[in-house]
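Tutorial handout. Part one gives the primary structure; part two gives the three-dimensional structure as tokens.
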Amino acid sequence: MMAKASRLRKTGEMIWLSFFLLIGGSLFSQEITVTASVSANPVIANEPFQITVTVENSQGNVQMTQVEGLEFLYGPSQSQSYSNVNGKKTSQFVYSWTFKAKAEGNVVIPSIAVRTSKGTMKTEPIDLKVTKAGGQSNAAIDKDFMTVIEVSKKQVYLGEPIVVEYKIFNRYNGFSPDTHNITEIDGFWTETKTDHQPAWTNEVVNGKRYQVATMRIDVLFPQETGTFELKGFEMTGFVRTNFFSRNEISATSKPVKIEVLPLPSGKPENFLGTFSQLSMEVTPSRTQLSTNEALDFDVVFSGKGNMRLLSDIKPNWPVDFEVYDPDIDEKISVNEAGVSGKKTMRYVIIPRSEGTYTIPGFAYSYFDSKQKKYVALTSEPVTLNVKKGTGSSDGNYSFNSKSDVQMINQDIRYIRRDVGILFAPETRFFGSPLFYLLFGIPYLAFGAAYLVYRKRKQEAGNMALTRQRKAGSFMKKWLKEASAEVGNPSNFYNALGRGLEQYLIDKLSFERGSMRKGSIKAALEPKFGDDITNQFISLWERCEMARFAPASSADAATDLELANELIKKMEAR
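Part two.
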């Protein structure tokens, strides 16, 4: 009986073990799939779109290849999600790259290799149709998610402002915006509404209710004539399908053409620019004063237009006035109506000789974009009565500006004869300047050491400043790591690319998620100039492209030398 019971117990254990193995296999061994998709088909030539690879139930190492007919822009972006429904576990890993088609026609996106936990798998090829600009757009009004560029005008004069609003229209429930990219346009001065905060509002379009948010508001001032295209407003977001998973969606706006007309012929002298409204007021702080006393002379412009481009004017001051460069005060606002405000140029002038002086009236002109004609701006002359002051005034010099001194009556000053009584210098050490200098050195050294200590303590507490100061030394480590991989271009460009990105993050407090050509250019140009900026961006793009198109060791060696030179120049600024 004991032996029989033992056999029954062992048989039961084997049955339960088999049962758990069977259940475990069904719970944890899910089918692995890889699929490729595009954000739109057809796409518009020279418009960005996304190629997305989705890996189900496994992490993937995607070997994205260069596609003939497409130009790589940036990527990849990654997301992942997990779900557990009735004991069935699933996972999803999504990888997206942004490209643009070079020309109208058909493009074949070949199979993309993905290394998974069960070996290398391949996606199905995709036949992509490319249409010319002005054809079908993925921003069609009947879509549930789209991006739109709205402009206040499509035909303007040179310098006339255009208000541009970048909007998203959404009909999905559970939508969460992720990233957006706005392509900068050349040939325009851009003012951005910095205090704008996107907020959802409801709007009915063609009978459909949308949630609408304005992501950014710009005011563009054209600096060149011709026809221009506003394009490339991309938006990526996620729609939650259940508590554990979500789907990525994206859209790219339809281009908007802007025609910039030249100004009419006959432009007058002293031209200030294009404005829809402009006034000028000239005000001295006083008109009665004495020699060697200062007065403020304000020239105030108020209006609507690009007030920042109003440069300091050059009044015709009397030769006996000493005039300082103006202190400029701007009170300018940017909003949905455009740019408006006030610009004050305050000159400090000091008359050096007595008399009655007349400052001629100012005469300028501007193009009124509303009336479509040139308008004159004038002011009345200002008379100043200057009496002799208590201070000394030679009368032999005149001051036309702070740095312009003129001789009037004579070329050579006489040698002074009444020098007074001469005394022998003191020979005592105690109480001499050298005595006090040597006596104060310890106190000065202690004070300097304390200031250095406080400065270093403050810098240690400012992590951003510390990273900025050490960005160059950290970059040298990346360059050293990259130099060891010159014989292996793939590893070389991977190390160099990571180093360049980290250098931007440390040096300029750049955000890793903002690694776009336009963003990098905007951050580098003000500090390092066009030449260094363009070389840096070209080098960064080659590092990105090396992921898809292998380079040679000779290319790697050349780029290593360029990287070293660039970092030296940037650290020297």
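Part three, for discussion. The chain has four domains: 29-136, 138-262, 278-407, 463-572. Residues 433-461 form the longest helix (29 residues).
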